[in-house]
């Protein structure tokens, strides 16, 4: 019977809605039923939304608090989420996702040993001289104006700021300086600067590996603490691991 109804409708005339008359073409397109249906559905949907919001406003507890109140703000009528600082850098995320803690510990140990060798090779005399002296001399009243530091230390005035290799005047008279080629001095200076640059990079690398190792170790401890959840005291940053306070448990 249903197939007969479908066959009967095959030859029936298709209903077409009239178009906008020529005399009313300046008013735009004539609204069809499908256009009215979309407009009516949108109107009812907005009405239901306003009705729901009005109900929530009437039922709202004035003393209610949730953290999204302080984690977002409205600026010029537009709602914005407060952007939090990233806890990990891109390199730290890649390292924690692709490697384990043993690999990170091994690389950090290698970097620390290499730093010790470079520091022993350079003796860090330039860094020591860059730090200002804090030595205090006590003199009698009235002698501050005539006090000469170079004379008191028995050294040349150009060597006062040194903390190492500051010979006395009596020793300077006995020293015979050899003739040194300027080209050799320049190459030695360049090599020294290159070594200092490598040392600074390795120190920075060792710090980053230490932070990654601390974060991975803390993540493992948090995974093991299933019964008593620790309390986070300080959130993680790009240069430091998070700080958690674990509850004391008496061990037998």
Plain-language structure description:
Helix 4 runs antiparallel to helix 8. The protein has a two-stranded antiparallel ribbon. 3% of the residues are buried. The longest helix is centred in the last third of the chain and has 43 residues. The model has no long low-confidence stretch (mean pLDDT 82). It is built from eight helices and four strands; from the N terminus they run H-H-E-E-H-H-H-H-H-H-E-E. It is mainly α. Belongs to the UTP11 family. It is found in: Nucleus, Nucleolus.
Average of pLDDT = 82
Net shape: elongated
Characterize the main sheet: 2 strands, antiparallel
Structural class assignment: mainly alpha
Enumerate the strands of the largest sheet in spatial order, edge to edge or round the barrel. 1-2
Number of DSSP helices? 8
Sheet-strand content, in percent, reads 5-15%
Q: What is the number of E strands?
A: 4
- In whole angstroms, the N-to-C terminal distance is 84 Å
State the low-pLDDT regions, or none.
Answer: none
Give the C-alpha Rg.
40 Å
Helix content: 40-55%
* Order of H and E elements: HHEEHHHHHHEE
Keywords: Nucleus, rRNA processing
Pfam family, one: Utp11
InterPro entries: SSU_processome_Utp11
Main location: nucleus
């Amino acid at each position: 019977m249903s197939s007969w109804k479908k066959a009967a409708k095959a030859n029936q005339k298709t209903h077409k809605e009239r178009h906008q008359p020529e005399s009313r073409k300046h008013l735009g397109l004539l609204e069809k039923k499908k256009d009215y249906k979309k407009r009516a559905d949108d109107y009812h949907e907005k009405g239901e939304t306003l009705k729901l919001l009005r109900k929530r406003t009437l039922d709202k507890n004035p003393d209610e608090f949730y953290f999204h109140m302080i984690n977002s703000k409205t600026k010029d009528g537009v709602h914005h989420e407060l952007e939090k600082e990233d806890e990990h850098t891109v390199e730290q995320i890649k390292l924690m996702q692709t490697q384990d803690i043993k690999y990170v510990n091994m690389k950090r140990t290698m970097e620390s040993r290499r730093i010790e060798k470079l520091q022993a090779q350079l003796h860090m005399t330039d860094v020591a001289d860059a730090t200002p002296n804090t030595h205090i001399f006590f003199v009698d009243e009235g002698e501050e104006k005539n006090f000469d530091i170079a004379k008191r230390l028995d050294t040349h005035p150009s060597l006062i700021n040194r903390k190492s290799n500051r010979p006395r005047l009596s020793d300077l008279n006995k020293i015979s300086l050899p003739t040194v080629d300027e080209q050799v001095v320049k190459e030695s200076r360049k090599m020294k600067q290159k070594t200092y640059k490598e040392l600074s990079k390795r120190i920075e690398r060792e710090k980053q590996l230490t932070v990654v190792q601390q974060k991975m170790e803390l993540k493992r401890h948090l995974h093991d603490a299933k019964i008593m959840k620790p309390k986070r005291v300080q959130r993680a940053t790009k240069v430091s691991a998070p700080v958690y306070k674990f509850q004391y448990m008496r061990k037998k």
